[in-house]
Amino acid sequence: LALAVALSQQQVQDQCVYQAGIASRVQEIRQQGETWEQFKIETDKIYQDDEGYKNLLSIGYLVYDQIPAEMNADDVFQVIYDSCIAGHYRKHKKGNEYES
Length: 100
Known about the structure:
This protein is mostly helical. The protein is 76% helix and 4% strand. It contains four helices and two strands, in the order ααααββ. Strands 1-2 form a two-stranded antiparallel sheet. Helix 1 (2-31) packs across helix 3 (51-66). 12% of the residues are buried.
């Protein structure tokens, strides 16, 4: 059971690192002057309409819509990572214990 919980926690951490990394890169692209519309057009050219594409657009939209344009990419990474981790554990809180 402990191994299963640890693996699940590692999976959550990996997922959050992935999301935060994407958000950080999107912010760098945004700070180079690319608008949301341009980002979406370029994404449409490169990726197929699958789950990865939808995830990328969701994260991209979050960055363009919710993150200040002047925030540096490292700070974006940290904000998205922290939010992802907190969101996961809020969803799985049971009493005073956390489930994964």
